[in-house]
């Protein structure tokens, strides 16, 4: 009889821990958020620089994925940053507007006469993943996947 009582107490205890679960709240968003800080010190109007950002969710490049300097880029799954936003030692901030499964950043350029520096700082889910500072002497290109 004692074994049956112990068995019953153990079973009741197990059922009380497994029968009901606390509401986990809203669905957790999947994907990654990103913030990129770009600059090209020394860039002139004769030089060329370009950054291309592509984001996808569930394998699809879709809708509005990006902000440039805080301004949402409506209906843009792919954006490009060129010379005019960076000449004069300007800094550009590119951010995701929603979590994305896959983020591809391709960037590069060419120097006409004097070298310039191409800088990219990538923060993924709030953590610095890359902090690149490379000199562009003639031609340069790089691609990063997150």
Automatic annotation (TrEMBL):
Give a yes or no for keyword Signal in this entry. yes
Keywords (alphabetical) are:
Signal
Tell me which domain of life the UniProt entry assigns to the organism this sequence originates from: Bacteria
Q: Which residues form the signal peptide?
A: 1-21
Entry protein name: Uncharacterized protein
